[in-house]
Amino acid sequence: MTEKIGVLGKGSPQRTQRTGVERIVNAPLPTVYGKFRAVGYMDHDRGDEQVALVHGDIGTEGVLTRLHSECLTGDAFGSQHCECGDQLAGALKAVVAEGSGIVVYLRGHEGRGIGLLAKLRAMALQAEGLDTVEANLALGLPVDARDYGVAARILQDLGVNSVRLLSNNPRKREALVEHGIEVAETVPLLIPPCESNITYLRTKRERLDHVLPHLDAVAHLS
Predict the structure, then answer these.
(1) Coil, strand or helix: which one is 39?
(2) Pairwise CA distance, residues 114 & 139, whole Å
(3) Which of 30, 36, 65, 178 is least buried, going by the fewest C-beta atoms within 10 A?
(4) Does the annotation flag 162 for ligand binding?
């Protein structure tokens, strides 16, 4: 996109604020899962730095794709309160096994969009007996404030027209379609639950419409 420049009176040209999503850098990123390209973007509308991890020759149609919401506690600290860290690892492994694919890592999505400190406050309420939906509402916060428009614009910049979406969340599919990306298939990304996250996962299935059929096999977990 181009940057607009305005002129005020007799002074020097004044640069107006940029808008939209701009590709900034494309760098090789070898990982324990395989070799990726880290394509970095600036979302000028929200002020977030974003990154897409691209593996192989992705083409334009039916690209195996994961939209992964930032989760510091799960992705970096290995929290078992959620399944986010395992999903991120599983997605990276899946695109490498496929031979090509994309993991769009969405910053600004912490705690389904409420931010890190608010998420920790919600987790404290969950420890007292509220579920993840009730905790957000008790704090006066939205249940899910995520916007996937930036993900769609990143995919469009990468030349992707349609994806095979690695997700259990039907809202991600709906959001991509709404923003002009065809979803040819939804590919489940199911992580075995543990005692620490089974209640959270059941709430995601029952109250947030996530497709998690594997939970039926672990009725013994409390």
Answers:
(1) strand
(2) 10
(3) 30
(4) no
- In order along its 222 residues, the chain shows pLDDT tens digits of 333 323 334 444 455 677 899 999 999 999 999 999 999 999 999 999 999 999 999 999 999 999 999 999 999 999 999 999 999 999 999 999 999 999 999 999 999 999 999 999 999 999 999 999 999 999 999 999 999 999 999 999 999 999 999 999 999 999 999 999 999 999 999 999 999 999 999 999 999 999 999 998 876 665
Give pLDDT tens digits for 11-43.
Answer: 444 556 778 999 999 999 999 999 999 999 999
Q: Is there a binding annotation on residue 82?
A: yes
Q: Are strands 162-166 and 63-69 parallel, antiparallel or unpaired?
A: parallel
Longest dimension (CA), the chain: 75
Which among 195, 196, 193, 170 is positioned nearest to 183, based on CA atoms? 170
With H, G, I as helix, E, B as strand and everything else as coil, classify residue 56.
coil
- Catalytic residue annotation: 144, 146
Asked whether residue 71 is marked as a ligand-binding residue, the answer is yes
Please give the structure tokens belonging to residue 215. 């939970």
Helix, strand, or coil (residue 195):
coil
46 is in an annotated binding site: no
